[in-house]
Amino acid sequence: MPVQNSDVRDIFNKMADLLDIEGANPFRVRAYRNAARTVSGLTRNVSDMIIENEDLTTLAGIGKDLAEKIREIVETGTLSQMEAVEKRIPSGLNKLLKLETLGPKRVKILNSKLGITNLQELKVAAEQGKIRELEGFGTKTEKSILESLQHVKDKEKRIKLLEAQQQAEPLIAYLKQTGEIKNIIVAGSFRRRKETVGDLDILVTCKNGPAVMKRFAAYEDIRNVVTRGKSRSTVVLRSGLQVDLYVLAQVYYGAALHYFTGSKSHNIAVRKLGIQKGLKINEYGVFKDKERIAGKTEKEVYGTVGLPFIEPELRENRGEIEAALNNKLPELVALKDMRGDLHSHTKETDGHHSLEEMAQAAKEQGYEYLAVTEHSKRVYMAKGLDSIRLAGRIKEIDRLNEKLEGITLIKGIEVDILKDGSLDLPDEILKELDLTVCSVHYNRNMSKKDQTERIIRAMDNPYFNILGHPTGRLINERAPYDVDMEKIVRAAGERGCFLELNSHPDRLDLSDLHCKMAKEMNVKIAISTDAHSRSDLKFMRFGVDQARRGWLEAKDIINTHSLNELKKILQR
Known about the structure:
Beta Polymerase, domain 2, 23 helices, seven-stranded parallel beta sheet, DNA polymerase, domain 1, about 45% helix, Beta Polymerase, domain 3
């Protein structure tokens, strides 16, 4: 079985979790987490890189030791060092860290005092009221644990879009090698670019259906073949992801693509329009009585009910049908519209490349500018900058800009919003910058009222430009902090501030619904990657996908403008 990037990521994250529980050096723990993040974000399979004898130490955060560990995982499917750690610490404990209420110290207490080694034992102890009796826990914590356990159960049903893409792309390439395929596409929530995906629906038109089905069933990453037929087969990949392959006649392709792309509620709305016109619409086409009148393309399907083509990202029955009927569909932003990235880090803090290396990578992306926004001093684990170091950084960027060609570095900072709503650095240094990204990293458990007031108070600072990752969520890992987003969006508009759509596939924060809310309230968005390495800059694609789901157009986004226009926009 080939080792996937997600396998390496999971082993490194588990290693970090177990070491964290054991109380290991925090920098050692962080190294494993950074390596997991690097590998999971690669566009290529790390197994292929090993086979081609590529130097893994060129990857962000991967030194010689971690490179050897990756090689061991690829070649053996496991990591001997982790097996040694598991002899000291029950391996199931790492899953307890997925609960936001629990940190390494609490997990260790639960294990030592109650003998808890897995989520099921934790659930039983919480239901029996044993956890509240432990020092430092209490009834409130016990209740939060039970709520978090339900959240973990729900989130395990879907995987992040990036992970789905990493599993879909090699499978598509493998199927294309038959030479029989004319059209092949992944439909469903994957095509609609939802932030999480439950399964994959692959549609194919081809010359030789049986040959394609035979090759599909022989894919080496399959755990088991559920069904195998002439027009449909279902398999489960080793990761647990279900994949359905449909072989279609070319004449059905458009209708099937529309049907399997969804969403279900969108399709129902389209079918209702068809019924009003005496039409029947299904995955085989559009029918008038028994005559098939359309279905070869999606455009044909929409045309029969009086609609223009509707982009897949909009198909959620959130007003797109009405907008289409009234010729008011948005002209959705595209990746080519992006002129620069407004959130990035270098190795001066917790990034992995130098200023010049990040500038060159941004230039290769076709950008006009890149904002360098190191962490401020509050984020001490990331070696955040104080005023003195930031002043030096400003001078360094000015010197580098004098020799750079085709790209300009913007002087910025990701400054922490402190608990009282003040910013982590004084105005005297913030006024020397081109922009600030202001973020919440600590004190996430404040009440909704206090958290909202904290952020709005920060926006009152005249040097506040962009609210970074506005809800603080990590998809499938950490829930958003409790905040009134409607009040936040309104406050941003009133103060001339902007909201970040953080493109990292783990965040995608803002959500699509909050993007649409911002658009309706005329508040502009910055789509940024929060890049910690050169390769992270490619995550812009995921941010643009999310923006499209939120109905955003180029005019709604500040970094679709030229550098000169952007500087004017940022002036409060």
